[in-house]
Specification:
mainly beta, Jelly Rolls, five-stranded antiparallel beta sheet
Length: 362
């Protein structure tokens, strides 16, 4: 049908499908997307019979390491998972799938296939359980994570205004008065971009989700909000996707003022060997909320690809040997594991794991 429309305006010239979808991406909180091998093969055969050229999107699934998982906007903000497996013919780990063999069978009807066996799936290794210990609460190590110190501002500034492209920023102010009866801490719609962890009373504010919490406290109590950039909208009309607090937080409609804003350089610290090379922290106060955990594991003389599972963990970010593997969120799903390429692992010395758990470790 699409090629027919093309031929009406362009009677000659090549027929090209520049984005033939072999699958689709996943969004946090939605079902895993999958497309049947038979359907993909049938569409491919129909196009090749017309003499068309085809570019597959994706042919090889991949991974949105670090903070590179973007987002879509379809009536609301839809952050993409760390995995970009895409249900593609070659999986996130580079392995052939049933869909790849179905596509090869179709292509064999039109031209000879390469001679020789298909490369097999790469070997994977189960390295076992890794015990993690709590290193420190995030709020207790702002001197390490924000060595330049906070930015003072009467009202909150966006990530862009403080030149923070990715990751996390702490917004800190003080309660201006005693709040004995619960007061409403809230923000206008679409101004918490994208997820705020409130650490006066534990709770979250979320874009297109909960935008108000009830809080109590005394005048002068510290109100900290850790703001997470969950990924930028990568195409369409909403591509100017500012992050952070885009408007003021209010207490019972009274704007809060006098903020200290901490842009967190977490990756810089971890790439320089922190916290494994740092002296152990004296026991952090037992407050709930975002905290760092550390552990190590050995490889048996060879490094193979593997996956990390998170039984009982909630949501956060994970690094191995300073490499940011991306965001995990098994509580919301659908993704339950993070892909670990063998190339980030060490042989003959410990592999360091660092985890920033935002909502609660088991």
């Amino acid at each position: 049908e699409a090629f027919g429309a093309q031929r009406r305006v362009e009677p000659k010239g090549p027929l090209v499908n520049s984005e033939y979808y072999t699958g689709w991406l996943d969004y946090w909180g939605e079902a895993h997307a999958s497309t049947s091998s038979a359907q993909v093969a049938r569409g491919l055969e129909d196009m090749l019979q017309l003499g068309a050229s085809v570019n597959m999107y994706m042919f090889h699934g991949g991974t949105n390491f670090a903070y590179w998982s973007g987002a879509d906007f379809k009536d609301q903000y839809k952050p993409v998972t760390t995995s970009y497996d895409y249900d593609a013919p070659l999986s996130e780990a580079g392995d052939p799938t049933e869909k790849l063999f179905a596509i090869r069978t179709v292509i064999s009807k039109f031209q000879p296939l390469p001679i020789g066996p298909m490369p097999p799936a790469t070997p994977k290794y189960a390295y076992g359980r890794v015990a993690l210990r709590k290193y420190a609460n995030l709020l207790d190590i702002l001197d390490v994570l924000c060595p330049s110190g906070p930015i003072q501002s009467q009202f909150p500034l966006t990530f862009e205004a403080i030149k923070q492209a990715h990751g996390f920023v702490v917004y800190r102010t003080q309660l201006p008065r005693d709040v004995l009866d619960p007061a409403t801490l809230g923000a206008p719609p679409h101004t918490v971009c994208d997820r705020g962890y409130v650490m006066l009373q534990k709770g979250t504010l979320e874009r297109d989700g909960q935008t108000a919490l009830h809080v109590t406290g005394s005048a002068g109590d510290t109100l900290d909000v850790l703001l997470e950039n969950m990924g930028r909208i990568s195409f369409g009309a909403n591509i100017s996707d500012f992050k952070g607090l885009l408007a003021n937080l209010s207490l019972d409609s009274s704007p809060l003022r006098n903020w200290l804003i901490y842009p967190l350089a977490i990756d810089t610290a971890i790439q320089q060997g922190w916290p494994h090379a740092a002296p152990p922290k004296s026991n952090s106060r037992g407050r709930a909320g975002p905290a760092f955990y550390t552990g190590t594991f050995e490889t048996p003389g060879i490094t193979w690809d593997t996956f990390v599972k998170f039984p009982g963990w909630s949501k956060g970010q994970l690094w191995i040997n300073g490499f940011n593997l991306g965001r995990y969120w098994p509580r919301r799903g659908p993704q339950q594991t993070l892909f670990v390429p063998g190339s980030v692992l060490h042989v003959g010395r410990p592999n360091n794991i660092t985890v920033l758990e935002l909502e609660g470790a088991p």
